[in-house]
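Bug report (template v2)

What were you trying to do?
Predict the complex of my protein with nicotinamide-adenine-dinucleotide.

What happened?
Run completed; filing so the output is reviewed.

Input:
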Amino acid sequence: DKFQVLVCGGGNGAHVMAGLAAAKPDIEARVLTLFADEADQWSESLKTNDLTVLVKGSDGQPDTAIKSKPSMVSKKPEEVVPGCKMIIIVVPAFAHNLYLEAIKPYVDPKCIILGVPGPSFDHAVRGILGEKADTVFIFETLPWACRIKEYGKEVEVLGSKETVLVAIQGSLSTAPIGPMGKSPVETLQYVLGAAPVLHLAGHPLCITLMATPTLHSAIMYGTWTNWDGKPLDKIPLFYQGVNETTAQLISDLSDENLKVTKGIKRKRPDVDLSQVKHVYDWFMTRYTNDVQDKSSLKTVLQTNNAYAGLKHSMLEVEPGKFVPDFSHRYISEDIPFGLVVTRGVAEVAGIETPIMDKILLWAQEKLGKEFLVNGKMQGKDIYSTQCPQAYGLKTLDEVLGH
Ligand code: NAD
């Protein structure tokens, strides 16, 4: 009896996840993709081809081709959801709700629901599945840089993260599952292989409160809030271009996340938020070998080899003239699935967040959206975010899931 896993999504990450899961002899991997004609295209390809995950070798090592066949690819949840003990949703966060609504009528009440990437995915699961949400499992980020080469047939993994923070909550968090007898986290490690190494982060809120979306939002605000609207001749560096004021803002925003963390811990000492770190400390654990000058947050950002040469996303309005692209995911995803969520959690916990508010008010105007209105998360666009208010989670217990 194989362990039945459903991968939801039809993009780059979904291809890799489905391919790696299907390659395991004790796992049956199915795919649900609701978008356009992806299910038909993928099914058609599987009639004559395997799905190949091509993992590019690093440091001169040869590439590895992992070939497998998902058992079914469908756009009909009723065909693929029943019987699955683990559902892995691998889509951009804006499509989480769509998949959760689609699986809801068919999902086994003892199912593990995993979001990749999934900061604040737990709010969506509890908000939409309600009583049917047993165990929710989240990854802070997609484990790979990856790209489909040929739809349904081949996907290339250009690189893997070294480590990924994960969190799991619910009755099956540590239970042995499937014929492998491994816990859910061990099962995912088994599917992924050696890299990335999964690190448990305590309560899922830890991942929401951790650094990256916060970092991107603060850099965008710091860089562009005083911009005069005139096109620039040069595209500024994203991290290396951070000045003293922006570095201070990033640090202050990170302190505000810690203030939210402490406020919640005071009310709910049983909730494990011990892994929430200041952004400087986060860099010291993540990028210790890449950073040349560790003396301050500014020098850390300016001298991190992993960030060398990365630029702002800009639009060329005329030859050699650039304006910032405020539709880039550092704003369009990191605000609704980052800062909006943290701000919403802080509101439920009764903690004031003047710095978040300042950045959010600026960013929502750039996005042409309303999230924060009259000091509350009540704008008309909150329903396209994963803040607790979007799902009617009103108390700290509802937000924390117990
Ligand atoms: P992707 O770009 O491949 O996602 C596209 C897929 O999402 C489509 O194939 C479709 O299945 C689904 N989709 C798109 N629009 C939809 C809609 N309107 N309704 C329903 N479904 C829709 O995504 P990915 O590359 O797998 O990345 C997943 C997430 O990870 C994203 O948030 C991305 O920003 C992030 N990420 C990706 C990479 C990477 O290398 N691919 C790296 C870092 C982070």
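What did the reviewer find?
The chain has a mean pLDDT of 96. The chain has two domains: 3-200, 207-400.
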